[in-house]
Amino acid sequence: MKNKKALKQNVITYGMVIAFWAVIQIMMKTGNLSSLAKGLLVPICMYVILAVSLNLTVGILGELSLGHAGFMCVGAFTGAFFTKVAESAIPSVGVRFFIALLIGAAVAGLCGFLIGIPVLRLKGDYLAIVTLAFGEIIKNLINVMYVGVDQHGFHFSIKDTTSLGMDDTGVVIIKGAQGITGTPKAATFTVSILLVLLTLVIVLNLINSRTGRAVMSIRDNRIAAESVGINITKYKLMAFAISASLAGVAGVLYAHNLSSLAATPKNFGYNMSIMILVYVVLGGLGNIRGSIIAAVILTALPELLRGLNDYRMLIYAIVLIVMMIFNSSPKVLEKRAVMKEKFRNKKNTAKEAA
To answer: Is the torsion defined by CA of 251, 253, 255, 257 positive or negative?
Structure first.
């Protein structure tokens, strides 16, 4: 019974995403979608992936992480770097983009695993501080890194491009604070939706599996979970690494939606991690569908309200407050539960009458 209920909820979540894609496709075909809205489609999907993946760490595992932008940065730069390096060897942009997704996810997941080994021994604010430091270190490290390639191989420097020591055939890929330029815009809305669905399949199947129940038992009561033989370190590392890997996928998507990629504080800094966390909190901790809705609304709203000028951020703040009350207020949650129970009783009564 419980498995059937979970399956039904999962199908509804998948249906929401597919319906969103279908509506957007119809609007694009009929010419009812503005260029501004079209430009928001890939970023919306990217933020949905980030919110769902962070919810795995914060909502399901119960650990506060502020380094999600760092894992996104790792995925973005490794994916873009591969796409540029393999340009002559693999002419097809689509094939390079697909391989870049795999590489970005693998490298970000590996970073999550390596960071998780010492970090997941910490709790609460200490964990948040260390993951935040990781994100800032990654961003600043890329900003001082110069990487080029010639017929002799790769060349690295932390000074400038002249100190790379390349021959005449050399090409600079990463240019310090300028980042990577000339990345093909391979990220489309359809591909982004497919990646969102893949993320949901991974996360929802994990949550409803034996592994997911073990992870949630660690969140609810670590001592009780350990007493029944659950390997705390194994399951925490698994959830953290999967979350980081999915953030890397979002990073690759982000890198291939722009012609130039730079590790700026706006793109991969502290504020980005906080914004993703806001999506998770407003959508509800552990509520995957809520994370999707929050990410879509809060990403699109500031741009859609841009014509209101001074009132734009005021309306945005009001929406944030309303969403927080709707998802977190004990009285509202109690009323929602009562209304849900009444609706279920009416539905059962109608079935019995039929």
So the answer is: negative
CA–CA distance, 332 with 108 (Å, rounded to integer) = 39
Any alpha helices (H) in 152-231, and if so which ranges?
A: 189-207, 210-220, 222-227
DSSP structure class, residue 230: -
Predicted pLDDT of residue 184: 86
Helix ranges (H only) for 34-154 are 35-55, 68-85, 93-119, 124-143
Strand pairing report for 146-150 and 171-175: antiparallel
Secondary structure class of 155 (helix, strand, coil): strand
Q: Using CA atoms, how far apart are residues 20 and 293, in angstroms rounded to an integer?
A: 11
Q: What is the pLDDT of residue 251?
A: 92
Cα–Cα dist 34/245, whole Å: 33
Neighbours of 192 (CB within 10 A): 22
Residue pair 245/59 in contact by the 8 Å Cβ criterion? no
146 beta partners: 157, 175
Q: How far is CA 112 from CA 35, 43, 69, 71, 75, in A?
A: 36, 23, 12, 7, 11
Tell me the whole-structure pTM to 2 decimals. Answer: 0.87
Q: Which helix (H) or strand (E) holds 246?
A: helix 232-255
Residue 180's beta-bridge partner residues?
261
Q: Estimate to the nearest angstrom the gap between the alpha carbon of 314 and the chain centroid.
A: 26
